[in-house]
Amino acid sequence: MYNDSEIQDWIQKHGVVSSFTFIVYGNILPPDVNVLTKGLIYHLQEYLSAGEMIVLYDPINEEEARAWNVYQGTSVAFIVAKDTIHLEEDIKKIVLEGLEFLRFKAEYLGSTNSDSNV
Q1: How far apart are CA 100 and CA 41, in angstroms?
Q2: What element of type H or E holds 6?
Q3: For labeling, which of 11, 26, 62, 112 is most exposed (least CB within 10 Å)?
Q4: Can you give 7-59 as a three-state secondary structure string?
Q5: How far apart are CA 117 and CA 16, in angstroms?
Q6: Residues 6+ apart with CB under 8 A from 90
Q7: pTM of the entire structure?
């Protein structure tokens, strides 16, 4: 759903990364993603800073939706450059509330932690 090479680069650079993936039932645009990202950093500034997170988003067409058993829309993943799984509920709540504010229907798909084993 998103560029695995970017994530692999982040894992190599930072050692451990956490990702939080959402499905947005619509075409989310860069300004919308910027609002979500800034809101997330603002609310979790004790744990996150702007340089420690990237957001990857890719449209999901009909063929991909059928293959992944989801609906068409946009996959949005927040990739954080450290182990932040303990913040999962906070991140989920903040992002879903932000998407609702922007008038997008969305669901949280889950989180993963990846380690470079270095």
Answers
A1: 18
A2: helix 4-14
A3: 62
A4: HHHHHHHHCEEEEEEEEECCCCCHHHHHHHHHHHHHHCCCCCCHHHEEEEEEE
A5: 8
A6: 43, 44
A7: 0.85
**Could you tell me the domains of the chain?**
4-110 (3.30.70.100)
SS (H, E, C) 60-113: ECHHHHHHHCCCCEEEEEEEECCCCHHHHHHHHHHHHHHHHHCCCCEEEEEEEE
Tens of pLDDT, residues 96-111: 999 999 999 999 999 9
Tokens 């860069």 belong to which residue?
30
Reported as a single tens digit per residue, the pLDDT across 43-88 is 888 887 767 888 888 999 999 889 988 889 999 999 888 888 899 9
- Residues 79 and 95: their CA atoms lie apart, in Å, by 13
CB 19 within 8 A of CB 112: yes
Cα(24)–Cα(71) distance, integer angstroms: 9
